[in-house]
Specification:
The complex is a heterodimer of chains A (176) and B (353). Chain A is α+β, with helices and mostly antiparallel strands. Chain A has seven helices and eight strands; from the N terminus they run αβαββαββαββαβαα. Chain B has a two-stranded antiparallel ribbon with strand order 1-2. Chain B is elongated. The chains are: A alpha+beta (176), B mainly alpha (353).
């Protein structure tokens, strides 16, 4: 009984610890400070092209979207990685991360990711991706307008949002 | 005909096929496919020579033997069993494309889910077995050439792995899933048929100069007829592949349009259709009126082999990724905004004041 209770508490604790990056595109101004701090944290150089987060811009409609890894439930990058360099770490926010020592730079994960997230680092010659900065995402810390937040999974209601968005997209398709 | 400006977001999408796998991977896919295909055909010829009623005869007397360290190497098997050499030359191209090349040996660590890892294992086994069989046909030791049923076992295994290598080149692309053009079972089938057609043509070319078939034109004719049939089947599979992908998804449609009418139309119509299908078929039909004309067969063969390479290059370059949900939202927002702008402009025209 005690064991079962401790197991249950453990699971609760894990659920509480599990956090994800949430982006509010309406707040983003496209300043790309997140790219800069990300590259400084991971590479030591202020070079946005080596950042793990990329701001996608649609200047025509004034829309900016910081794109970071979604750490997908069914991660294609993990499936296609030939060396197991790309793997999931349940103990660290269930993140999907790349082991630098195992990555061979084949870029299969980049092709497989539907969100185009993992990036090829030209200097290190391997693929890199968001790893939540080991629990303290710098993009969240430095975003002045709070467009990116690091939130508990439970609070994001991602499933409901997704469902609402899909309904919205479907209705717009019918209107068109 | 519609003359209005092209939707900017959609227009940008046309120009963004994947840029990760380029010519080096195309060379790898081509050499692996062609080498494996030629080995499959070569082994079939080799087995055919063992069966009297198959009517396939080889005359190795035309081939010279080479003296190496006092041993006379028997070259009779080389023109039909050289496929593994091509695969062995092609495999380093995959290594060349890696970010950190010396780590290529790690590429076999995840065969459970990764097709790159599975391919590494399939190709390695095929290269080792294939080169072993080629060496067996070369070496002069009598005990190696004793026709025993036991020798069929490694041949059958090598045949299976050659077949696996030919089909794997297509599965590798299919397994990435995010690119609708590649995400179909027809792609491995297309690459398999292309591997067999280029492989059989490569066998015909390699036997041309040797005179291996020259005394027995019937065998060459059967091989040519089989090769022509493979080209026709390849054409049908290519048509099915493109038409199915055109209807599969928006990005599949974009990929096909990019190939047929976009930036890559020259490669498709010139490189794949003309070089790979039309010219070889015409030249081979002309050859039937001039039996034994090696120049015509040679020209047809070279064109067909070029076409096989362009097929892989074209399929690789035309791969456009699936649309992310946010991109779709952008299109919707863009359309809404464009409608509003149009309405505002209309109101201004009606009420200039």
């Amino acid at each position: 009984m005690l064991l079962a209770l401790s197991g249950y508490c453990g699971r609760l604790e894990m659920q509480e610890q599990e956090k994800v990056l949430v982006v509010d595109h309406r707040k983003c101004t496209g300043c790309r400070l997140c790219e800069l701090v990300c590259s400084v944290f991971h590479t030591g150089s202020s070079n946005p092209s080596r950042s793990r987060v990329k701001v996608v811009k649609w200047e025509d409609v004034g829309f900016y979207l910081p794109m970071a890894c979604n750490h997908c439930e069914q991660a294609y990058c993990v499936e296609v990685c030939p060396t197991k360099a790309c793997h999931r770490e349940p103990e660290n926010n269930n993140r999907v991360t790349i082991d630098k020592k195992l990555c061979i730079g084949c870029r299969t994960c980049i092709i497989a990711c539907p969100f185009g997230h993992p990036f090829f680092d030209i200097q290190e010659r391997i693929t890199v991706k968001c790893d939540y900065c080991d629990g303290d995402p710098q993009c969240v810390r430095f975003c002045d307008v709070k467009a990116i937040s690091f939130t508990d999974v439970d609070k994001t209601n991602m499933a409901k949002k997704r469902e609402a968005f899909l309904k919205y997209a479907e209705s717009m398709k019918q209107v068109r | 005909m519609r003359t209005g400006p092209v939707h900017p977001i959609r227009n940008v999408r046309y120009l963004r096929p994947q840029k990760e796998w380029k010519e080096i991977i195309a060379i790898y896919l081509y050499l692996a496919g062609m080498g494996a295909g030629s080995f499959v055909i070569g082994i079939l010829i080799h087995w055919g020579t063992l069966i009297p009623w198959a009517g396939i005869k080889l005359d190795p007397s035309f081939l010279p033997s080479i003296d190496l360290f006092g041993y006379a190497l028997n070259l009779s098997g080389v023109p039909i069993l050289w496929g593994p050499i091509m695969v062995a030359i092609g495999a380093p191209f995959l290594i060349l494309d890696l970010g950190i090349k010396w780590r290529f040996i790690y590429a076999c660590l995840n065969p459970r889910t990764s097709w790159v890892a599975r391919g590494f294992i399939i190709l390695s086994i095929f290269i080792i077995l294939g080169l072993g069989l080629l060496a067996k046909s070369l070496l002069p030791f009598k005990w190696l050439h004793a026709e025993s049923v036991l020798w069929r076992i490694p041949e059958i295994i090598a045949f299976a792995f050659a077949f696996g290598t030919a089909i794997y080149t297509g599965i590798l692309l299919k397994a990435t899933r995010s690119i609708p053009l590649w995400n179909t079972n027809l792609l491995p089938l297309l690459f398999l048929v292309s591997a067999l057609s280029t492989g059989s043509m490569a066998i015909i070319l390699s036997t041309l100069g040797t005179g291996l078939f020259s005394h027995d034109t019937e065998a060459l004719r059967v091989l040519m007829r089989g090769e022509q049939m493979l080209v026709v089947i390849e054409g049908i599979v290519l048509y099915l592949f493109l038409s199915r992908r055109y209807r599969a998804a928006e990005q599949g449609k974009d990929s096909v349009r990019l190939l047929l009418f976009g930036e890559m139309k020259l490669m498709f119509w010139g490189g794949i259709v003309l070089l790979g299908f039309v010219f070889p078929v015409i030249l081979e039909n002309i050859t039937s009126f001039f039996p034994g004309n090696a120049a015509l067969i040679f020209a047809a063969g070279i064109l067909l082999l070029c076409g096989g390479f362009f097929l892989r290059l074209g399929v690789l370059h035309a791969g456009i990724k699936d649309q992310i949900p946010m991109h779709r939202l952008m299109e919707i927002q863009y359309n809404v905004m464009a409608e509003k702008t149009k309405a505002l402009a209309g109101e201004r025209l009606k009420n200039p004041n």
